[in-house]
């Protein structure tokens, strides 16, 4: 895309990513409004900030990372569902993540995101994707497009993991971090919750999955490529 072509168009965008340097880079790459037509009206680093900023600014498009402190991108989508469903000026979400894991892609698309692109995307293509999502298109990185079609349309698509579906979004976040070897205190700090709450979530996960300890949990998560 020729970014100069975007100067007669305008889209208001919120950036949601827990890495400040990445947000700064995206802002520098696409946020020069006179050149790209993209106006960055807000930024957020976790779920609570995201919901607050999105509600206050009502952007046309939100660039949303999948893994965020406070519950992840799916939690942002859940809490912003009324804004997505608005009859006038709905807020649309485009996932922008380093991850191309099946669970991440399907999770945010089920949650209501209009597309999913990886962080290898060029600035020009990202600007184009933002405008396409604003216009109501579904946008995916080329490597993910075929996968998404298979997952949602093909009768040969793998079945939904019923065990995983028993877990809440927060329990899945804790599960991933436990499987990656994080201590309870580290998980509490990353998710902005207490150590006692982490312990409660771990107990719930073990009970729902009928596992005995964190070692079994790690093997379970690894087998499903959740780590």
Number of strands: 6
Number of helices: 13
Characterize the overall form: globular
Task: Bin the helical content.
Answer: 40-55%
- Enter the CATH topology name of the largest domain: Rossmann fold
Could you describe the largest sheet, including whether it forms a barrel?
A: 6 strands, parallel
Structural class: alpha/beta
Going by CATH, the architecture of the largest domain would be 3-Layer(aba) Sandwich
- Fraction of residues in β-strands: 5-15%
Q: Into how many domains do the coordinates divide?
A: 2
Question: How are the strands of the biggest sheet laid out side by side?
Answer: 2-1-3-4-5-6
Question: Which runs of at least 5 residues are low in confidence (pLDDT < 50)?
Answer: 154-158
- The ordered H/E elements are EHHEHEHHEHEHEHHHHHH
CATH class (first level) name of the largest domain: Alpha Beta
Mean pLDDT: 85
Q: Measured on Cα atoms, how large is the radius of gyration?
A: 18 Å
In CATH, the homologous superfamily of the largest domain goes by the name: Response regulator
Distance between the termini: 36 Å
């Amino acid at each position: 895309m020729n970014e100069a072509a975007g100067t007669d168009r305008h889209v208001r965008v919120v950036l949601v990513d827990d890495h400040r340097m990445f947000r700064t880079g995206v802002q520098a790459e696409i946020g020069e409004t006179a050149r790209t037509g993209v106006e960055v009206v807000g930024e957020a680093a976790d779920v609570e900030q995201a919901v607050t900023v999105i509600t206050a600014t009502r952007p046309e498009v939100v660039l949303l990372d999948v893994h965020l402190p406070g519950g992840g991108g799916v939690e942002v989508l859940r809490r912003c569902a009324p804004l997505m469903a608005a009859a006038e000026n709905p807020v649309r979400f485009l996932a922008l993540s380093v991850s191309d894991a099946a669970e991440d892609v399907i999770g945010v698309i089920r949650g209501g995101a209009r597309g999913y692109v990886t962080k290898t995307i060029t600035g020009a293509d990202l600007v184009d994707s933002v405008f396409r999502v604003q216009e109501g298109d579904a946008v995916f990185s080329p490597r993910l497009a075929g996968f998404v079609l298979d997952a949602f349309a093909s009768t040969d698509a793998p079945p939904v993991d019923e065990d995983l579906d028993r877990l809440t979004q927060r329990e899945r976040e804790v599960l991933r971090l436990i499987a990656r070897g994080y201590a309870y205190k580290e998980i509490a700090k990353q998710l902005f919750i207490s150590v006692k709450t982490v312990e409660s979530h771990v107990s719930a996960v073990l009970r729902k999955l009928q596992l005995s300890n964190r070692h079994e949990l790690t093997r379970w998560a690894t087998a499903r490529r959740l780590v």
